[in-house]
Design a protein that fits this description.
heterodimer; A: 3-methyladenine DNA Glycosylase II, Chain A, domain 3; Alpha-Beta Plaits; elongated; B: Ubiquitin-like (UB roll); Rossmann fold; 27% helix; globular
Chain lengths: 276, 434
C-alpha cells in the first residue's frame, strides 16, 4: 500500500515537473509562424503538385505571404482559391489566371495507327521511346502506355478503349504533369475556351504519314486557306494553330480531309474578337 | 594457363554449341543493298552519291563529317536507286543509300600492300580511317577515334577482345578460328597505330580451339594469349581491363586514361583486311541462330544485306518467330521488320519461338540483392531502378547510373522479373539531357 502510494506520488510529481518544463520550453523556444501562412496554406488545394513552380503548397503559401508570388499564383485552384487568398491578404479582387487544360494532340489510336510489332518492355512511354520507339510506326504519335495518366495527380486523365489518353476537362487543373511525362510532347496546355485543335504532331511528309496513320496531318494546306483569320499555318509539314488568333469558327475542321482537326462540343461558337 | 576472373556477371545458357563448329559460309552479295549512313556511334556520314549514280564494290559512298564518325563504302557494284530514310536495326528510319546490284561485282582499285607491317603508324591510321572501320563487337565505336583520342597518352596494353560472352553468338569465335593469322596481323597493326607496348589477346575459356590456334599463330612474337573465365559479360571493355590488367577505368572515363586500348577480334581482322588487301569494311561475320532457324550457321555477309536474305540463306524459319534479335539475347535489339539491313554492328541474327521468349509481368521487388551481387559495374540496380520509377534523376546519378554498362545482368537475374535495365537506361537518358 505504502509502496503504491510512493509510486503514484513520484510519477505524479515527475509528470508535473515535466509539464512545467514543457510549458516553459514552448513559450521560450516557440517559432513564430505568420498566421497568414497557415491560412493561405489551408486555402490552397494542398496536393503539392508543383504546378506553381514552388516546391509545394507550403512553399507557395510562404512566398505569397512574403509578397514574392501573386495571390493568383496557384493555377490549380483557379478563381475560387485566388479570391480566398486575396481576401486573406486584404487585397482587392485578384484576377485569376486564365484556366488552361491539357489537350492530347494525337488521334492515332490502335485503330488509326496500326501497330508494327508487339511491345513487351516495361509499360512506360518514356522507356518505349528510348528503346525501339514503341509498337507504332509513327515516330511522333502517342505510344499508348499511359505514362501521362499515371502522372496525373487529379485523376483527370484516362485511357480510352482505342489506346489514347483522354482528358476530363472539368477535373484538369493545367498543372502540366502530363506534359512533362510525355516523351513525345503530344500534350499541350491550352486555354479552356479554345475548342479547335489540330490533333497531330507528325513532321513527316504527307505520303509518309498516310502509310502509318489514317488521321495524321498530311499538310494539304486546305485548313490554312480556309481560315478566315489566318490562324493556321503549315510549318515543317504540320498544320499549326495560333490560339490567340483563332475564333473557333470550325471552318478548318470542316475541310480537313483526314479529320485531324477536331471541334470540341460546346466550344464551337464564334467568339466576338477583333480581327487583325 | 591461369584463368582470369572478374566481379559480378551471370551464367546464362550459352547455346553456342549450335554454331560454334560450323565454318563461315560466304553469302553472295544481295540483290538490293541498303546502306545506312549511321552504322556506328556518332554522327551520320554524309552521302556522296545520288540517285542514278554507278558505284563499285568498295567505293566510298558516305564521308566523315564530324570528329566521331566513320566513312561508309558500297558493298556491291550497281546503280544507286535511292537516297532516303529506311528502317534500321535500332528501330528508327535513318538516311540510307539503296543500291541495286548489277551482279558484276566490279571492284575499285583497292591498293593492296604486300607487307603491311612495314607501314608507318600514320599510314596505318590513314588506312583504318579510310576503310571506315568501327568496333565490330557490337557497339560500333569508330576505331580511328579510339586511336586518336589516346594519342597523347602512353598506351601500355592493347587488348584484343576475343571474349564473345553473349549467348548463341559465335561470329568472333569463327573469326579467331579461321582468320587466325589476320587477327594476329591486325593486332600488330593496331598496336603499331596506337603505340601500344604489349598485345594481349583475351579469349574466354570455353573456346579452347581459338586459344590454341592463336597461341600457335602468335608464336615467338610478344603477343600473349590469356584465358578469361566463361561468364557474361566477360567481353565488356571495362570488365576485361580490370580482369586482364587489374586496372580500373575511372567513372565517366575511357580506357586510354589507364593506358589500355581494347579492340574486338573482328576489328583486328578488318584492320588486317584494310591494310593488306586495301579492302574497306564492307562485310562481316554474322551468326544466324535460334531455336527456329532451320540451318543455323556463321555467314560472311556483305553489309546492307536485308535480314530476310540472311535468314533465307540459313534455311528460313521452321515456325512463326516470336522474336527476332539483332545481336545477342542479352543486349540485342528486337526487330519488327526483316527488311532492315545487316550493318557493321550486327554480330548475329537470332530468331526465337514463343516458348523461348516467354514474358513475365514484373512482381514487386523483394530486396534480395541479387542484382547488386551480379552487377559487374559495382552498382546497386535496385536503388537506381526505384529512383528512376519515381523520377528522382539526381539521386540516380549519385548512385552511379551513368556507370551502367547496359549488360542487362540485373534484369536477367531478378527473381521478380523486373525490367531494371530499362529503367536505368531511362535514368541515363534523362541525366544525359540535363
Amino acid at each position: 500500500m505504502n509502496n503504491a502510494l510512493i509510486g503514484v506520488l513520484f510519477m505524479g510529481g515527475l509528470g508535473a515537473l515535466l509539464a512545467v518544463g514543457l510549458v516553459f520550453a514552448s513559450k521560450k523556444f516557440a517559432i513564430k509562424v505568420e498566421p497568414m501562412i497557415e491560412e493561405i496554406e489551408t486555402a490552397l488545394p494542398g496536393i503539392n503538385c508543383g504546378a506553381c513552380g514552388f516546391a509545394g503548397c507550403r512553399s507557395l503559401a510562404e512566398a505569397i505571404a512574403e509578397g514574392k508570388a501573386p495571390s493568383n499564383a496557384c493555377p490549380v485552384g483557379g478563381n475560387a482559391v485566388a479570391e480566398k487568398i486575396a481576401e486573406i491578404l486584404g487585397e482587392d479582387q485578384a484576377s485569376a489566371p486564365s484556366r488552361k487544360v491539357a489537350q492530347v494532340l494525337c488521334k492515332g489510336g490502335n485503330v488509326e495507327a496500326a501497330a508494327r510489332a508487339d511491345y513487351d518492355g516495361p509499360g512506360d512511354c518514356r522507356i518505349a521511346n528510348i528503346t525501339q520507339g514503341g509498337d507504332k510506326d509513327c515516330i511522333y504519335g502517342c505510344l499508348g502506355l499511359a505514362t501521362c495518366v499515371e502522372a496525373c495527380p487529379f485523376d483527370a486523365m484516362a485511357m480510352n478503349e482505342n489506346g489514347l489518353p483522354i482528358v476530363f476537362e472539368d477535373k484538369c487543373t493545367g498543372c502540366g504533369k502530363c506534359v512533362e511525362a510525355c516523351p513525345r510532347d503530344i500534350i499541350v496546355l491550352v486555354g479552356e475556351e479554345y475548342g479547335v485543335h489540330i490533333r497531330c504532331r507528325s513532321l513527316s511528309l504527307g505520303k509518309d504519314v498516310r502509310k502509318v496513320c489514317n488521321v495524321g496531318c498530311i499538310a494539304c494546306r486546305r485548313c490554312e486557306k480556309e481560315c478566315p483569320v489566318g490562324a493556321i499555318s503549315i510549318i515543317d509539314n504540320l498544320a499549326r494553330i495560333d490560339y490567340d488568333k483563332c475564333i473557333v469558327c470550325g471552318k478548318c475542321a470542316a475541310v480537313c480531309p483526314v479529320k485531324t482537326i477536331e471541334i470540341q462540343e460546346g466550344k464551337s461558337v464564334i467568339k466576338p474578337k477583333k480581327v487583325g | 594457363m591461369k584463368t582470369i576472373n572478374f566481379r559480378g556477371g551471370v551464367h546464362p545458357e550459352y547455346s553456342k554449341y549450335i554454331t560454334a563448329d560450323l565454318p563461315v559460309k560466304v553469302l553472295p552479295p544481295p540483290e538490293i543493298a541498303i546502306i545506312p549512313m549511321v552504322q556506328h556511334v556518332g554522327e551520320a556520314a554524309e552521302p556522296l552519291v545520288k540517285k542514278g549514280d554507278q558505284v563499285k564494290v568498295g567505293q566510298i559512298i558516305g564521308k566523315i563529317c564530324n570528329t566521331v564518325c566513320a566513312s561508309v563504302h558500297s558493298p556491291v557494284s550497281g546503280t544507286v536507286k535511292a537516297v532516303e530514310p529506311r528502317p534500321t536495326v535500332n528501330g528508327h528510319a535513318l538516311l540510307s543509300v539503296v543500291i541495286e546490284n548489277d551482279g558484276l561485282d566490279a571492284v575499285i582499285d583497292m591498293n593492296p600492300h604486300p607487307d603491311p607491317i612495314q607501314l608507318s603508324a600514320a599510314e596505318i591510321q590513314k588506312k583504318i580511317e579510310s576503310a571506315g572501320i568501327v568496333g565490330l563487337g557490337g557497339a560500333g565505336f569508330p576505331a580511328i577515334v579510339k586511336i586518336n583520342s589516346a594519342k597523347d597518352h602512353k598506351i601500355d596494353y592493347l587488348i584484343i577482345n576475343g571474349s564473345e560472352c553473349e549467348p548463341y553468338l559465335t561470329a568472333d569465335h569463327r573469326v579467331m578460328a579461321e582468320y587466325t593469322s589476320e587477327v594476329i596481323l591486325g593486332a600488330k597493326l593496331l598496336a603499331k597505330a596506337s603505340g601500344a607496348e604489349k598485345i594481349i589477346i583475351a579469349v574466354e575459356e570455353n573456346k579452347p580451339e581459338c586459344i590454341a590456334k592463336l597461341t600457335e599463330a602468335a608464336g615467338s612474337s610478344a603477343i600473349e594469349v590469356v584465358k578469361v573465365v566463361t561468364k557474361y559479360p566477360a567481353g565488356s571493355e571495362k570488365q576485361l581491363i580490370k580482369a586482364v590488367c587489374n586496372r580500373e577505368v575511372p567513372s565517366n572515363g575511357l580506357p586510354y586514361q589507364v593506358g589500355v586500348l581494347v579492340h574486338n577480334v573482328g576489328t583486328a581482322w578488318a584492320v588486317a583486311q584494310a591494310c593488306q588487301k586495301g579492302r574497306p569494311l564492307i562485310e562481316r561475320v554474322v551468326t544466324v541462330s535460334g531455336d527456329i532457324i532451320k540451318e543455323p550457321g556463321n555467314f560472311l555477309v556483305r553489309l546492307g544485306t536485308p535480314f530476310k536474305t540472311v535468314i533465307q540463306a540459313a534455311g528460313g524459319f521452321t515456325a512463326e518467330p516470336a522474336k527476332v534479335l539483332a545481336g545477342g539475347p542479352m543486349m540485342g535489339l528486337a526487330q519488327y521488320n526483316l527488311d532492315v539491313p545487316v550493318v557493321k554492328t550486327v554480330t548475329g541474327i537470332l530468331a526465337f519461338s514463343q516458348k523461348e521468349v516467354k514474358q513475365y509481368d514484373p512482381m514487386p521487388c523483394i530486396k534480395c540483392g541479387r542484382c547488386v551481387e551480379v552487377c559487374p559495374a559495382h552498382l546497386m540496380p535496385v536503388r537506381i531502378e526505384l529512383f528512376a520509377i519515381n523520377g528522382m534523376w539526381d539521386e540516380a546519378r549519385d548512385y552511379g547510373a551513368m556507370d551502367c554498362i547496359e549488360c542487362g545482368c540485373c534484369t536477367y537475374i531478378c527473381p521478380s522479373k523486373r525490367g531494371l535495365f530499362h529503367w536505368i537506361k531511362l535514368a541515363k537518358s534523362k541525366i544525359a539531357k540535363v
